[in-house]
Design brief:
- With 558 residues, the protein is α+β, with helices and mostly antiparallel strands.
- The protein is built from 14 helices and 22 strands.
- The strands form 4 sheets. Strands 1, 2, 3, 5, 6, 9, 10, 13, 14 and 17 form a 10-stranded antiparallel sheet that branches.
- α10 packs parallel to α14 and α11 crosses α12.
- Bound molecules: 2-acetamido-2-deoxy-beta-D-glucopyranose (2 copies).
- The site of one 2-acetamido-2-deoxy-beta-D-glucopyranose (NAG) has 5 residues, from α10.
- One of its GO terms (cellular component) is endoplasmic reticulum membrane.
- Keywords: Membrane, Transmembrane, Transmembrane helix.
Length: 558
Amino acid sequence: MAADVSKATPPEGNERIQHASAKDAAGGRTRPRLGWAASTLLLILAVPCIGVGIKYYRDTQLSTRHEVGLKTLGPEGLFLFSSLDADHDLFLSPEEFKPIAEKLTGVAPPEFEEEFLHDPDGETITLTAAMQPLLLQTMTKSKDGFLGVSHRSLRGLRSWKSPVTPSSTFPASHFRIFLPPKGKGELGEAWWIIPSELNIFTGYLPNNRYHPPTPRGKEVLIHSLLSMFHPRPFIKSRFAPQGAVACVRAVSDFYYDIVFRIHAEFQLNEVPDFPFWFTPGQFTGHVSLSKDASHVRAFHLYVPNDRSLNVDMEWLYGASESSSMEVDIGYLPQMELRAAGPSTPSVVYDEQGNVIDSRAEGGEPVQFVFEEIRWSSEISREEAARRLDVTFYPFKKVPYLPFEEAFSRAEAEKKLVHSIVLWGALDDQSCSGRTLRETVLESSPVLALLNQSFISSWSLVKELEELKADRQNLDLSEKARLHLEKYSFPVEMIVALPNGTVVHHINANNFLDQTSMRPEEEGATSFSFTGGFEDPSTSTYIRFLQQGLEKVRAYLPS
Ligand SMILES: *[C@@H]1O[C@H](CO)[C@@H](O)[C@H](O)[C@H]1NC(C)=O
Ligand SMILES: *[C@@H]1O[C@H](CO)[C@@H](O)[C@H](O)[C@H]1NC(C)=O
């Protein structure tokens, strides 16, 4: 199925690389982790050279084990086995067997949270969760009444109507994971709370998993927060860019206001149904807390609902990882966590030094009065969100303007409109444009050309259809019509004159077919450490843009 560009990506090339490096990624659990930059460098060097010999040995060994597994368990049984086998060595460690043990015994082993020792005198904060389930009628596949979609595939989705934990109390000190690391406290300067471990070489994480890996370090709190919605949040999404970033939005003598953005997803189905991945565009929000994290003044986490579609869904309908996958997108009206109030101490002392339990039953609840926070410097929420955006998506170093604004700006600056029309959004995880932005759109030559000669914009098909239907604005309606005339599924890249005439366009699938790396060419690919990854798609995209510039001359005889 051609539904997702990312699946139509440089297929063989990426698959092969993925195998060689999946071990490195998994090995990170046992080996001391190198710095991110160092390990990337290592990967770059290791993949083409040393990789080959080791990979050959390992592949032979694995394929033997795979055959034995298939004989013993059959395809469905082996699928289930593999879903637990996090490091793909076809052996289950006690750690990997843990979800099954918990399921069968009903007993979860004690959590060892090395970083957080419970302080009984510390403050606690209560969060409440709210959600309205995904509107099934917004899914494309609802158009024919989910004809041909097995009832079992959607079981997890249909039955998920409300948060599993409507309210939960956390020690305020756990929110220290949101504090800036040393040297990162500048307003608007973004840092990674949970760094992405995926890159163009690692490909993506497997779809055939049911249970999230045990969260570690800073993942623990985020895992607990998202677990209030559903018991199976995956803090590391299958696709890049994964992880969580934050920046300081405002600062006072004692407090920070920190804005964050998290790319995580949920797996909704249980055995024997196949996995169903529910990937909101993003989780964002802010936390106001004291610089020592002893007090949390405000906390809000939510999935933005201001676009017409905000969740990507992918589900398997067979035991084969690659071929049997369905994709759809839909609209989730609400998913959010809010603090019921600031964090408060559970124990307070009266003037004589006697302990009063502030939550004692029966007695008058203790009233806390909080001083107002006066920020000594701050940036706007929008600006902070933009900083996080660019950290996740370097392609946004050139601005992508809304449709209408792009045309008026292009008119004013005498530039062309570089426009991308997609079925799903370009800049979040509910998206079919992943491949584009991870390769061509963030490569420096493309960024430079776009910056110099184009005004960029991207739009959802659905939004253009609404503009087209708008009789109040005939000019814009006509521009949208001209765009849609050239659109074909799933993504179309367009070069247009400021008056809306389309001078050049290319469909993403054709584009990727033209540029997909053949496996035998892999070794010959040149790596440029300064300019990023120079792949054939970058030069093809440059050519596409230049052709657009040339074609304009036909319209402007001068
Ligand atoms: C875009 O061009 C302007 C002016 O030439 C320059 O200051 C800016 O750094 C450029 N941005 C990028 C992302 O290349
Ligand atoms: C836009 O301008 C070009 C060149 O001036 C012209 O050929 C074309 O017909 C115009 N298109 C529209 C939709 O007005």
